[in-house]
Design goal:
With about 450 residues, the chain is α+β, with helices and mostly antiparallel strands. About 35% of the residues lie in helices and about 15% in strands. It has helices at about 1-15, 20, 35-40, 45-60, 70-75, 95-110, 120-135, 150-175, 175-195, 225-245, 335-340, 350-355, and strands at about 270-275, 285-290, 290-295, 305-315, 360-365, 375, 385-395, 400-410, 410-420, 425-430, 435-440. Helix 4 (about 45-60) runs antiparallel to helix 5 (about 70-75) and helix 6 packs parallel to helix 8. The N and C termini lie far apart (about 70 Å).
């Protein structure tokens, strides 16, 4: 009976037609298929396709299919990565969906994919793995920005990448120090998840403690079931890789464990660096001695606001904030509408929350206009401005740089950042006459009892 059941499953797995089973692939016909496949036709394949490519590779490993589908779609997906950084380009550059497809491809490499695209994938994914270490917050959190941000699986997926590349650093290069940095990054990411375990044992889906039935801060597609399972599967994959790596012992001079003399830190705990991502991802990251900044240089207004969006400090709760920006404009999604309708402060109306009303950053009053007619940098969303990073002084305990926002042909705002391990100072300098400058920083005020 057992043999018969296994044989039937083999037959099922062998008979699968990926074109019929999956929605995102090269063979969609946008003139005859569903609205979903019209949206993600051959010209617009998204990260879902990479997930099904990884699944087809597993079928191939077990002898159920050829590798043709995998090779065909990897060839089509490679142009969706930035050449220098190895970041995946999803529409509007959401940070979670840069990393999400990369973990599936990295897992393929870990499972000995050696096809025609292996070398290209290895190069791109190694570049982006190192970059992910630099983009990680010293609290262990992954970078924020765009759809699906602030979900627990964002941090869990870091563990997959970091454990796989810890293994690859040793296996390919004998680089135990690099491996230790990746493992430290994975440990930080796990630590970021600890505070978000519910008393019943599973995770809160997003970084708030509202009852899951309220779906407060959820995306339309966020549910307590599937996004807990996704985070769990990521952590299980990372654990499996970590166990398989234990046979590769580091030198005694390197350790992640306090009981031993030398502890190697992750880049996020140390700094000092600042860098700008390409326009497809519109972010700047800076870190000086564990004081960490994330800046959005052209926010997708449905989710974020242009300007300084995150300040984290090593050893300090990320919720002290700011830890994420407030959307520039309202939308029908659960993420945005819940801020206005179910947020903690009923005194914040939708009109004050949006249009830059509660964003971090500079605003200005044009001469001759009313005092209430304040224009904010955060109002310049995706495509409405361009940003240039100019790096000044960079030292272990000091980091200085300028972000120059060109908001119109003849107008720009320069934000001058002076960062130490304990303090960030931002000075805003407009290139055009203003009646006055204002600085906005949202905060909740508790009433006295």
């Amino acid at each position: 009976q057992h043999v018969h059941v296994v044989s039937r499953w083999d037959d099922f797995l062998r008979s699968m037609d990926p074109v019929k089973c999956y929605q995102s692939h090269l063979h969609n016909d946008p003139t005859t298929e569903t609205e979903w496949t019209k949206k993600y036709s051959a010209a617009k394949m998204n990260n879902w396709n990479i997930v099904n490519v990884a699944g087809e590779y597993l079928r191939h490993l077990e002898g159920f299919c050829s590798i043709g589908y995998v090779e065909e779609h990897l060839a089509a997906q490679l142009p969706n990565f930035t050449e220098n950084e190895g970041l995946y380009i999803d529409p509007h550059g959401p940070m979670p969906y840069d990393h999400f497809p990369r973990i599936f491809l990295a897992t393929m490499l870990h499972r000995d994919y050696k096809g025609k695209h292996a070398e290209a994938l290895g190069t791109l994914l190694e570049r982006s793995a190192w970059l992910s270490l630099l983009m990680q917050s010293p609290t262990g959190e992954s970078p924020v920005g765009g759809r699906s941000s602030m979900h627990q699986w964002n941090d869990a997926q870091q563990c997959v990448t970091f454990e796989i590349f810890a293994h690859r650093m040793i296996r390919l290069y004998g680089d135990h120090e690099g491996a230790a940095m990746f493992r430290r990054g994975a440990r930080l990411a796990v630590g970021a998840l600890h505070d978000w375990v519910r008393p019943s044992g599973e995770f809160y889906i997003v970084k708030n403690r509202a009852d899951p039935s309220l779906r407060h801060g959820f995306e339309d597609y966020s549910f307590h079931s599937q996004y807990n399972l996704l985070a769990a599967s990521m952590l299980a994959t990372a654990f499996d890789v970590a166990i398989s790596s234990q046979s590769i012992s580091p030198p005694s001079s390197l350790s992640l464990y306090p009981a031993q003399k030398v502890i190697l830190h992750a880049p996020a705990e140390v700094g000092s660096y600042v860098f700008q991502l390409p326009d497809s991802h519109h972010k700047i990251f800076a870190n000086c001695g564990g004081l960490y900044l994330e800046i959005d240089t052209g926010a997708e207004s449905k989710y974020d606001s242009t300007g300084l969006m995150r300040v984290h400090k090593l050893g300090v709760s990320p919720l002290i904030g700011p830890t994420a920006s407030i959307p520039k404009s309202s939308s029908s999604s659960s993420t945005s509408s819940s801020i206005a309708t179910t947020g903690s402060s009923s005194s914040l109306s939708p009109s004050s929350l949006y249009n830059g009303g509660a964003s971090v950053g500079v605003g200005w009053v044009i001469p001759g206009s009313g005092d209430d007619d304040i224009i904010t940098l955060s109002q310049y969303g995706e495509g409405a401005c361009s940003a240039t990073l100019k790096v000044g002084q960079r030292a272990e305990i000091s980091l200085k740089f300028d972000v120059i926002y060109k908001i119109e042909d003849d107008k720009s705002i320069t934000e001058r950042y002076d960062v130490t391990p304990d303090l960030v100072t931002v000075t805003s300098v407009p290139s055009f006459p203003v009646e006055r400058l204002v600085c906005r920083f949202p905060a909740f005020e508790s009433s006295s009892s």
